[in-house]
Amino acid sequence: MAETTKSYAKVVENGVHAVETVKELSATGYDKDHIFVLAHDQDRTERIVDTANAQEIGMKEEGMFDSIANLFRSRGDELRSKIVSLGFTESEADFYEKELDLGKVLVIAKRSE
What we know:
50% helix; alpha+beta
């Protein structure tokens, strides 16, 4: 069985902290193509991604089926699916999604494979 490296996740208070966290992760060796930002509001996610020069979780990470299924899911279900697609458990995804409900931002980084 292949060993997998767990993704790094950090919940931050706002977009400014998310941008700072992305910069810190880049400085410590994470590839910018493997640093993702997620907020409860899609527009907010896009603004932070653009400002931080990070990535959105998309079809490449989720797979085609989940990406299409997200079109029909509630935003909470979609967020949990995206978080799980990066290697987190359902219970971890539930925790992070609740933090996003409170207006916080999630920054996730994966080591390049």
